[in-house]
Amino acid sequence: MKDTLNLLLSKLRMKQLQLLIALDDQKSLHKAAGVMSMTQSAASKALQELESMLEAPLFERSKSGMIPNQLGHCVIRYARLVTTDLTALCQDVAEIRSGRGGRLAIGAIMGAIPECVVPALNQLHAGQPDLSVEVVEDTSARMLQQLDDGRLDLVIGRAAVAADPSKYHYRPLGDEPLSVVVGYGHPPLPNKEVKLRDLAGHRWVMYPSHMPLHALLEREMDLAGLQMPDNPVSTASTFVTVALLQSSHDLVSLLPSAIAGLFVRKKMLRLVPVKLKSPSQTFGIVTRKGGVLSPPAQQFIELLRVHPPQPLQTPRPPRKRLPAHTARKQKSA
Q1: How confident is the model at residue 98 (pLDDT cuts 50, 70, 90)?
Q2: Among 82, 110, 268, 276, which lies 20 to 30 A Cα-Cα from 64?
Q3: Which residues form the HTH lysR-type domain (predicted)?
Q4: What is the pLDDT of residues 262-306, one digit of tens each?
Q5: What is the CATH class of 102-176+282-306?
Q6: What is the 8-class DSSP label of residue 196?
Q7: Domains 102-176+282-306 and 178-279 share a fold
Q8: Is 253 in contact with 241 (CB distance < 8 Å)?
Q9: d(Cα 296, Cα 132) in Å, to the nearest integer?
């Protein structure tokens, strides 16, 4: 392993890594050479030199073109990671030289954004107003792929969903409780606990089948002895979910409680007092092992750890005022 590392460090060229990425994209040596502004013979020689260093072929030739084998996929992933990191380096250097600060790319699950990501970003921006920030909201599994590719500096999500969680550093932050919600114009709900069975007359706005919240609702329905709805509206968008709930009184949905609380406070949604049986899922800070964090990423993580998310306080309905004469009677009694 040490000999291979020394050989790569002494002979590996960025042009070879860029060629691997072009081959993965184009599936053709001729097309990849064109993208790289190289002759086909020069591209072929560069690939052979890299395969010789690794002592194994990286591609298989098929009717559909040059397809990476298992080793090829591994090397290409790291090639993308290195080129992405170098691109980010050049970008950061240029921005720092120009006095515009650096760049930070964060991935976050939906439920972590209001109570966790937003407060930390506000504090970070207060000290670094010229910092460029990108926030990606997606499932943990998809964001971990972007973390692997170097497109994200860190993820606020779950490392356990990865095929190999040991690749990451994971620092737990908090839980992501869920709430059942309807539009604010929905008829008044009873104060007592509502069962999922009581919502049988409603249509569900659900998440696509690849998302964890879909599996959780499926589990809740199963525990309640119910079938999944036959005629749901499926969307991964919070905005679409809220807009649909507001437009119709017969729709109901499941949202992270932190997100639901935002819209409840703005009188756009109402909480349905359904007690879910599934435990809240924990989320945390996920970073790559062996990766070097930029100063903005380190500061952002420190802010998250110093000021962890606070549990959501479910809004209480306003207390009814008693007529003056009734209040006086109760006081005198």
Answers
A1: low
A2: 82
A3: 12-69
A4: 999 999 999 999 999 988 889 999 999 988 888 889 999 999 987
A5: alpha beta
A6: G
A7: yes
A8: yes
A9: 10
